[in-house]
Amino acid sequence: MKKILFIEDERIFVDMYKEVFSQVGLEMISAFDHKEGLKLAKTERPDLIILDILLPGNGIFFLEKWEKDSEISSIPVIAFSNYDDPKTKKEAIKYGVKDYLLKTDFTPQQFVEKVKNYL
Description:
119 residues, alpha/beta, Rossmann fold, five-stranded parallel beta sheet, 19% strand, globular
């Protein structure tokens, strides 16, 4: 079973996506800030990380640490945010995210289908 680390500070999104991912046979673990996300990435070794950019402490900070950490830098990251800022998007892509997706552009089912392309 493929494992996804979902780093998101809004519990409603975490609960919703945990259910949707489980319906298609994907395991989801969650972190509510970048520090917890970095720790879980190292201990759980997910197949994919989904990162909200507007986290307490900032998702870009997570990407800075992720990129420099040889233990986890090979794990693909998708940015998934409501923050549609071209500068931030460019910065996230510079750090190596596979995609920068806006939450408002996808239904949960559409997002799961998109995520499956990265597994």
